[in-house]
Design goal:
The complex is a heterodimer of chains A (about 110) and B (about 120). Chain A has no helices and eleven strands. Chain A is mainly β. With about 120 residues, chain B is mainly beta. Chain B has one helix at about 95-100, and strands spanning about 5, 10-15, 20-25, 30-40, 40-50, 55, 65-70, 75-80, 85-95, 105, 110-115. Chain B is globular and about 35 Å long. Classes of the chains: A mainly beta (about 110), B mainly beta (about 120).
Chain lengths: ~110, ~120
């Protein structure tokens, strides 16, 4: 089955700096790559996603890039703010049943 | 919240007892999922359903069973709870009939402690 690896497990940046989280996947048939944000004590929520026919997608301060050849994708957050502090999960979708395989998460802390 | 409710939200039980968690949705979505969340492991799929009485195993299904007798309800059962099943359990639905993006909407989670 699909295997998703995510790095780093923790990331601390100063407010205003950029943050990058990287994921690799194993199944070349995966075609949908979402990112979820989970604030402390809350449920995961989708923040951005990308499909395999697109190399990059941007939504305000967040962007995701995908390299299908290397089977990796990354989340970029620019001009980080304290409210960006959370755990971020990448995921890869395989199969018609929309099974999402998640990475192990990155705890991002934005310090003042 | 995509009309998803989980119950109970918190439960403490003893090893060897049966436990059932309920996920209820109000928007008639076909796909429903049960994940568990543990530190260092992220979200791992236990079981999922693609319709009434249609279910399949995920990556960590041992010790768990599910049932879906109605579209709106997806039940997760631990037949004989063990301490290793102490976790936060999230139910999710796939919003395929909204934008066909495959986005999952999660419930608020159920925290289970097995003593």
């Amino acid at each position: 089955g699909e295997n998703v690896e995510q790095h780093p497990s923790t990331l601390s940046v100063q407010e205003g700096d950029s943050a990058v989280i990287k994921c690799t996947y194993s199944d070349s048939a995966s075609n949908y790559f979402p990112w979820y944000k989970q604030e402390l004590g809350k449920r995961p929520q989708l923040i951005i996603d990308i499909r395999s026919n697109v190399g990059e997608k941007k939504d305000q301060r967040i962007a995701v890039t995908l390299n299908k050849t290397a089977k990796h994708f990354s989340l970029h957050i620019t001009e980080t703010q304290p409210e960006d502090s959370a755990v971020y999960f990448c995921a890869a979708h395989t199969g018609t049943a929309s099974k999402l395989t998640f990475g192990t998460g990155t705890r991002l802390q934005v310090t003042l | 919240d995509a009309g998803i409710t989980q119950s109970p939200r918190h439960k403490v039980t003893e090893t060897g007892t049966p436990v059932t968690l309920r996920c209820h949705q109000t928007e008639n979505h076909r796909y429903m999922y049960w994940y568990r969340q543990d530190p260092g492991h992220g979200l791992r799929l236990i079981h999922y359903s693609y319709g009434v009485k249609d279910t399949d195993k995920g990556e960590v299904s041992d010790g768990y069973s599910v049932s879906r007798s109605k579209t709106e309800d997806f039940l997760l059962t631990l037949e004989s709870a063990t301490s290793s099943q102490t976790s936060v359990y999230f139910c999710a639905i796939r919003a395929a009939d909204r934008r066909n993006t495959g986005e999952l909407f999660f419930g608020e989670g159920s925290r289970l402690t097995v003593l």
